[in-house]
Each structure stands twice: as C-alpha cells, then as structure tokens.
Design brief:
With 258 residues, this protein is of the alpha/beta class. The chain has a single domain, classed as Carbon-nitrogen hydrolase (Nitrilase/N-carbamoyl-D-aminoacid amidohydrolase). It has seven helices and 14 strands. The strands form three sheets. The chain has a six-stranded mixed β-sheet with strand order 5-4-3-2-1-14. A six-stranded mixed β-sheet has the order 6-7-8-9-12-13, covered by helices on one side.
Length: 258
C-alpha cells in the first residue's frame, strides 16, 4: 500500500486577475519544490469567489486548464482546483483534476451558495466523481458542498480521501473546522479542506484554516491564517487498519439519491 503525499496551497488571491494568480501559484510551487503526488488549490483560484461570470469565464479548455496541465507535468503530480467556465449560455464553478500526462476529469459544483446568489449565476453539477491516484480513491468537492453530508457520503467505503476546495469566509470559520472533522469521522476517511486567506473586493475576509483531518477526526495539519505551501504524507495502511478495527461503515444506512 502506497502512502499519498498531498500539497496544499493557502494564499490570498488577486481579485479577478487570472494571469496574476496563475503566475503567483507557479512562483509558490517553484519556490517550495514540493515532492508530492497531489497539489490542491482553492476554489475559483484564478479570480476569487466572483459572481461576475460573463467577463471572467474561460472556455472548457482555456488558458487555466492548459496552465494546470503544464504545472502537473512539471511537478509530476496531479493538480486540482476550481475555475469559472462557460459552456454555451451556462457558467459553471468547475473543479479540474489534472494529471501529469495532461488528461483530466472535471466536477461541477453541486451546491451553489444561495446567500451570495451563486445559484442565479452558475449552473449546478449533477454528478459526483471519484478519481484514483496511487491506489487511493479520492472524492473532490467544492466549498458549500461541505454542508451537505448526503452528497459527501462514503457509501461502501468507495473513497479514501475526501477533498474540499473553498473560498470560505472568516465569520463562518468555526463551521468550516467542525464540518471538516465531522465529514472525516462519519465517512471513515481522510479529509482535506483548502481555503484562501486575505480579503476580496466585496470586503469579505478569509481566515484560511486549511486542514487535513485523520479519519478519527484529529487534525494532521492546520494552517491558521498564514500563507504557505504545506506537504503532508497520508498512510493508506493506517486507514485500512482503522477501518478494520472500527468498521462503523458496515452499520451505515442504505439510501439512494433521486
């Protein structure tokens, strides 16, 4: 069983400036020289959390996807994060999962944050994805999805790592931390939550609090409000041993989404 090396980048973002943000993330990765399997960026990492989709949206295979393919190849690692995408007359808050060979999988954010009227601008996704990396099954989701345990449910232990990329504001940081731990405990899986810091032009403050949570619920990594590039190693054997010693998943209620 292979361990998984996960790198998260917690940083402020340049408001609605995709080129500046791509350059900034390239510089941070180059300076850190991470030896890693997976690089995780925040939600809407090229723009900040913006409802001004029309001038900011990229085509499905636009410059940010190409940049992600270049960075994935350069660092020999998967890179993931979400960006604003246009397809036809619709806009999506789309997470890309980009592999070193240039191939990719995508997930459109299911739960749109109505308090910011995200549901008036973006089209919700309808399908959850599972991706594989080094023998690990991983479920990547986006921000507000964290509040909905049914969508995050680890039915039949199908995934080993649950991942959330976010722009989660500081006033609700307590909920962010508690829910990350809850998702880990109830799903018997590692959980990684990657948030931003700083402020945006809508005067929203972000405290970061990116974290990686053990299946038992304790924090393996917590970042507070500091910017940084952090790499941590997750043990697959430890996960398997814990599930065997505490097989709560065998008593889970069955259900289907309709």
């Amino acid at each position: 069983m292979q361990d998984l090396h996960v790198t998260i980048i917690q940083t402020a973002l340049h408001w609605q400036d995709a080129e500046a943000n791509r350059k900034m993330f390239s510089e941070k990765l180059a300076a850190a020289h991470p030896t890693t399997d997976l690089i995780v960026l925040p939600e809407m990492f090229t723009t900040g959390f913006s409802m001004d989709a029309s001038p900011l949206a990229e085509p499905a295979e636009g410059p940010t996807l190409h940049w992600m393919q270049e960075e994935a190849s350069k660092h020999h690692a998967v890179i993931t994060g979400s960006v604003i995408i246009r397809e036809g007359d619709s806009f999506y808050n789309r997470l890309y999962w980009v592999r070193p060979d240039g191939s990719y999988t995508q997930y459109d954010k299911r739960h749109l944050f109505r308090m910011a009227k995200e549901h008036h601008t973006y089209t919700p996704g309808s399908e959850r994805i599972l991706v594989e990396l080094k023998g690990w099954n991983i479920c990547p989701l986006v921000c507000y999805d964290l509040r909905f345990p049914v969508w995050s449910r680890n039915t039949d232990s199908r995934y080993d790592l649950l991942l959330y990329v976010a722009n989660w504001p500081k006033p609700r940081s307590n909920a962010w931390s508690i829910l990350l731990q809850a998702r880990a405990i109830e799903n018997l899986a590692y959980v990684a939550g990657v948030n931003r810091v700083g402020s945006d032009d809508n005067k929203h403050l972000y405290s970061g609090d990116s974290a990686i949570i053990h299946p038992k619920g304790h924090k393996l990594l917590e970042t507070a409000e500091a910017e940084g590039v952090h790499t941590i190693t997750l043990s697959k054997q430890e996960l398997v041993d814990y599930r065997e010693s505490f097989p709560a998943h065998l008593d889970a209620d069955t259900f289907t989404l309709v």
